[in-house]
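User: Is it possible to get a 3D structure for a protein together with its bound compound? The compound here is zinc ion. I've pasted both below.
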Amino acid sequence: MTTLELFTPENVERVLCIVAHPDDMEYGGSAAVAEWTAQGIEVSYLLLTAGEAGIRGMAPEIARPLRAAEQRASCDIVGVSRLTILDFPDGLLEPNLALREAICREIRIVRPQIVVTMSWELEAGRGLNHVDHRATGISVVDAVRDADNPWLFTDQLVSGELTEWKAPWLCVTMHEPAHAIEVSEASLERGVASLEAHRHYLAALPDHPAPRDLITGILTGGGEAAGVPLALPIHAYAM
Ligand SMILES: [Zn+2]
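Assistant: Yes, that's possible. Here is the predicted structure of the complex:
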């Protein structure tokens, strides 16, 4: 990995993490979330699908509430109170205007200084990227801009409760990294526990690496590249 620059933005009060599925934040991202919430930063999650098609051998109507409960437990471990799960179809997510509008609405509600999302590239992280992850990433890029444009998705603005919002930073995980978020040992532990909270999901994947090995590997590698003990590799874009 190339040398990574530590990402240390100032005056951050709120962070909004937008991903496709329950568990997507838990592959390293939630360790950075634990670090932020420990500093008093308010972190919210927006999941675009309920991950109902994500467990082979479990029917969607059973998986849906179960995965929501596992995500809620995972959020509690890293200090996330606001968890919103939308009902776009798992496995069939499309980067369309309805998706952008929904993301834009949440950005205008939460008014974050940092939006976190996942890579939109075809190759990302450990191999070929999932269709829902690609659709999420590219839609978030566009929706961050949409949210700041008073002439887009104006239905959200007519009541005056919501106004346009410029999020100054977009942080992308599992993407060609250029930056890193330093995390403590305690945040690593909470990150590991937050992935372990997806018990049924992991139980259906016997070849899945142990959460501790996986998260420690990601954060140690990021730390080495950034010159600190532990860090999450990201790409931070100034918007
Ligand atoms: Zn996913």
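DSSP finds seven helices and ten strands in the chain. Residues 11-238 form a domain with the Rossmann fold fold (CATH 3.40.50.10320).
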